[in-house]
């Protein structure tokens, strides 16, 4: 694992400083002491921060205790990992809820538009029906007028014909 190799190289080289006496009350070494934030001074992990036992390197030299507590500062505990996953899931849920709300609003707008178009269609059908009725009336009237004109022309022709003979 990559973190293991970073750990080995930073501990094996003894290349870290403990000049930061900043502890984290949530993070403790294997002996229960507050872990300190240290900085890698050389090697491939130069400048990276990690939590380490406050007794290091003294624990190695004087006490003959070997607390090998190590954790990168940006490395998360299991609880932090679960909190991050929960936060990610909450974010996805929120995004989906916003998307659903937007979709619902678009659906309402489309339904409203559909209702208006259906009302317009109904109105247009009524207009077409009224126009058909008017057309039929006109057609009947036209037939009457045509019949009247034919009768009139017949009379005119008859009169003309009668006057000639």
Using the alpha-carbon principal axes, give the shape: rod-shaped
- The portion of residues assigned to helices is 55-70%
Total count of strands: 5
The unreliable regions are 1-24
Instruction: Supply the number of helical segments.
Output: 3
Largest sheet: 5 strands, antiparallel
Computed CA radius of gyration, to the nearest angstrom: 48 Å
Mean of all residue-level pLDDT scores: 78
Which structural category do the helix and sheet elements fall into? alpha+beta
What's the order of the H and E elements? HEEEEHEH
Distance between the termini: 129 Å
How much of the sequence lies in strands comes to 5-15%
Structural description of this entry:
The protein has 165 residues and is of the alpha+beta class. It has a domain at 2-75. The protein is 62% helix and 13% strand. The chain has three helices and five strands, in the order αββββαβα. The protein has helices at residues 2-12, 58-61, 78-164, and strands at residues 16-17, 23-28, 34-40, 49-52, 70-72. Strands 1, 2, 3, 4 and 5 form a five-stranded antiparallel β-sheet that branches. It is rod-shaped and about 155 Å long. It starts with a helix and ends with a helix. Mean pLDDT is 78; it is low at 1-24.
List keywords for this structure.
165 residues; alpha+beta; five-stranded antiparallel beta sheet; 3 helices; 5 strands; 62% helix; rod-shaped; disordered N terminus
List the helices and strands and how they pair.
Layout lengths: L1 H11 L3 E2 L5 E6 L5 E7 L8 E4 L5 H4 L8 E3 L5 H87 L1
Antiparallel strand pairs: 1-3, 2-3, 3-4, 4-5
